[in-house]
Fold this protein.
Amino acid sequence: MEFGRSDQIGFVAAAGLLRGKVLSGEYPPGTQLPSEKDLCHIVGCGLDTIRDALAVLSRELLIAKRRGYRAVVCAPPDRVAIALAPGDRVTAWMPTLPEAAALRSRPEMPVIVVTGAGDTTERHPADQVELIAPLPSLHP
């Protein structure tokens, strides 16, 4: 989906559009994104908006930026698969700065907390985990 020039959008929406293109594989890892000027035409916004959107994607580690060069799409991070057991609870929150540092994460990345039997908890940066739901029981 591309926006026309009359549909001026903010950097959050622009980042969302570009994030979708990266995650869908339209811009695969290792490829350069179009120039900032071309992205302005694709997204339908101004240069400052595109630069702010690219900064968001850079903080999310989806792209790598270097002054004077086009942004390059990064390989997706490795994710740890966590198989949830029946009764496990999953919550999420924004970390404190010390919590983000302890998890080796960024402060803007939510923390996923899995609470299992006996109130054991595991904390993970949201971009580093894949939660796998338990299969439904075949016996009522």
In short: The chain is about 30% helix and 20% strand.
